[in-house]
Amino acid sequence: MSVHAHQKAWTVPALAQAKAQGRRLAMLTAYDAGFARVLDRNGIDLVLVGDSLGMVVQGHGSTLPVSVADIAYHTAAVARGLQQALLVADLPFQADATPGRALDASVTLLQAGAQMVKLEGAGTKLEVIGFLAQRDIPVCSHLGLTPQSVLKLGGFKVQGREQAAAAQLLADARAVAAAGASLLVLECVPTGLAKEITAAVDIPTIGIGAGPHCDGQVLVLHDLLGLDSGHRRPRFVKDFLAQGGSVAAAVQAYAAAVREGSFPDAEHAYA
């Protein structure tokens, strides 16, 4: 039996309406039809086929080895398990290096079943966001800790703690929204800065390690279930299976905690 609070299938315009109404959005990753079906029936609004699959499914040390073909394969599988949740698919490393490459990859992912593509960064990516948006391809932007930039960043670190970096993140958030992004993921951003960004942009923000004031939250499914992916456990991760007793109950508990604003608490965020 479905416990989905949103009775209609999610659409891109409905995301903006949710922000306007103050309704928090619950998002999780999935990589196959079986788990997608569980998420769809237990309160999850958005499902992300993330390039995180490179680490939690394929066993790599980063997301860099993931290809468009990898994302497309898993997107098609996940799409078969969804009826209500909106499906977002990652553009993997360098698939968005130019507008033309991004368009080709996005078409592949939308034809596989995605309803939106996610890409990391601002700067030169603003042209890519605008290019896709002008061609009716919904875009989710991703700022803060951008895992595809792990080599440049020197590891997985909180972003925006210094004043100049915080100001740049705020400017980037405004810029991606102006370029045409419909959704914004903020990863490993101090709570206060994420709150400021959320208030400054009209599009919904989805936090992961960005505090409770975003318009929604996302976690990697394997982290939510307490599975050992062979990597250091981030501070923002909470094992909902430990308290839920079943996968479905864990997903329900996560969705409820997001909507009521009890997750993430200070223990699972960065000051």
How does this model look, in words?
By secondary structure, this protein is α/β, with parallel strands linked by helices. It has a single domain, classed as TIM Barrel (Alpha-Beta Barrel), CATH 3.20.20. Helices cover 41% and strands 14% of the residues. It has twelve helices and eight strands. It has helices spanning 12-21, 33-41, 53-56, 68-79, 99-112, 125-133, 150-153, 163-179, 191-200, 221-224, 241-244, 247-260, and strands at 25-29, 46-49, 86-90, 116-120, 139-144, 183-187, 205-208, 216-219. An eight-stranded parallel beta barrel has the order 1-2-3-4-5-6-7-8, surrounded by eight helices. Helix 4 (68-79) packs parallel to helix 5 (99-112), helix 5 (99-112) packs across helix 6 (125-133) and helix 8 (163-179) runs parallel beside helix 9 (191-200). The model has no long low-confidence stretch (mean pLDDT 92).
Secondary-structure map with pairings?
Layout: H1 12-21, E1 25-29, H2 33-41, E2 46-49, H3 53-56, H4 68-79, E3 86-90, H5 99-112, E4 116-120, H6 125-133, E5 139-144, H7 150-153, H8 163-179, E6 183-187, H9 191-200, E7 205-208, E8 216-219, H10 221-224, H11 241-244, H12 247-260
Parallel strand pairs: 1-2, 1-8, 2-3, 3-4, 4-5, 5-6, 6-7, 7-8
Helix pairs in contact: 4-5, 5-6, 8-9
Total beta-strand segments: 8
The rough form would be described as globular
Question: What CATH architecture would you give?
Answer: Alpha-Beta Barrel
CATH fold type: TIM Barrel
CATH class: Alpha Beta
Number of helices: 12
Unreliable spans are: none
The spatial strand order of the largest sheet comes to 1-2-3-4-5-6-7-8
Beginning-to-end CA distance, first to last residue = 39 Å
**Quick one: CATH superfamily?**
Phosphoenolpyruvate-binding domains
C-alpha Rg (nearest Å):
17 Å
Order of helices and strands: HEHEHHEHEHEHHEHEEHHH
Helix content: 40-55%
Mean pLDDT across every amino acid position: 92
| Quaternary form | single chain
Number of domains: 1
The secondary structure category is alpha/beta
Beta-sheet strand percentage?
Answer: 5-15%
Please outline the major beta sheet: 8 strands, parallel, barrel
